[in-house]
Amino acid sequence: MRPVFEWNLGSRSLLLGKRTLIMGVVNVTPDSFSDGGLHFERDRAVEHALKLLRDGADIIDVGGESTRPGAKVLAPTEPSSGAAAATEPQAKTAITEKEELERVIPVITSLKQKHPDAVISVDTYKAKVAQAAIQAGAEIVNDVSGFRWDRQMPKTLAQLKCGAVLMHMRGRPEEWRTLPPVSDIVTLVKRELREWADVAVMAGVKRERLVLDPGFGFGKNFEQNYPLLKRFEEFHQLRYPLLAAVSRKSFIGRALAREGKDAAVADRLYGTVAAETAAILRGAHIIRTHDVRACADAVRIADVVVS
Prior knowledge:
This protein has one domain: Dihydropteroate synthase-like (TIM Barrel, Alpha-Beta Barrel). The protein contains nine helices and ten strands. It has helices spanning 42-55, 97-114, 127-136, 153-160, 185-202, 222-230, 250-255, 269-281, 292-306; strands at 5-8, 13-16, 21-27, 59-63, 119-123, 140-143, 163-167, 210-213, 243-244, 286-289. The strands form two sheets. It has an eight-stranded parallel sheet with strand order 8-7-6-5-4-3-10-9. Strands 1-2 form a two-stranded antiparallel ribbon. Helix 2 links the parallel strand 4 (59-63) and strand 5 (119-123). The longest helix has 18 residues, at 97-114.
C-alpha cells in the first residue's frame, strides 16, 4: 500500500496514493533529448499538451530549457551540505531568463485559456521564471536542481504557496561523465533529498506542498539507476509523496541494447512502460512521462495491484 497524501497546490489539492497520477511532458525547446524540438512552437506545444490531457495526463509539465547530458546550465558551485549557501554562478546559462520566459509563458497562458481546469507544472530552476509561470496559471514548480541553483527559489516558493517537486541531481549536466563513484547511490540520494527538503521547509515551504523525485539519470551512471528503481520504496522513509521520471532515459536504452548498440530514444517505449510499472509497484505516486497513453494503460493495471 502506498501512503496517501494531499498535495497542496494553493487553490486546490491533489489526492496522491489512491491512484497513480500521470504528468505529461511538453518540451518547448529545440534541443530536448526526447523529442528534439518537435513542440518548440507555441501552437504545437499547446496542441500536444491538449492531446496528452485527452490521453490521460493529470498534470502537464511545461519546460523551456533542456537539462540533457552535457547541457550548460546556470548552476552555482554545489554546497557541501544542504544548508550551505550557494556561491556565484560558474557555468554559462544555456538560455537566458528572458528566452525561457518567452518559451513557456505563452504556452501556459494559451493552455489555460483552452483548458481552464488543466493542472500545469513549470519545469524550471529559475525563481523568476517560476514566479511568472505561477502568475500565468501554473500551480506546480518542478525544479531539477532541488531548489539549489537559484538561491531565491526556496523563498519564492514559500511566497507563491504553490506545489513543488524537489528533484535530486548530482553535479551539473556537463559534469556527469566525471563524477566520482558512489558506493550506495540509494543511501546518498535519500540523505541529500532529506537535507534539501529540510532546507526548503526551513525557508518557509510547507511540507504538504512538496513532492520528492530521486532524479533517475540526473548525475547517475547507467548502473546506478537500477538500484534506485529496485529500492524505490525506501524513499517512503522520507515521508513525502514520490515522483518517478524514467521515461526514455539513457539507462533504459542501455538495458535494451542489441549488438552492442543502445536502443534509440524512439525504441524505448516498451522499456519505459516496464520501468514505470516497476516504479508504481514500488510506491510511486506520480509518473512523469512522454508517452501518456501507454503509461495510462499501464497505470490502470498496476494500480489494481497496489491499491
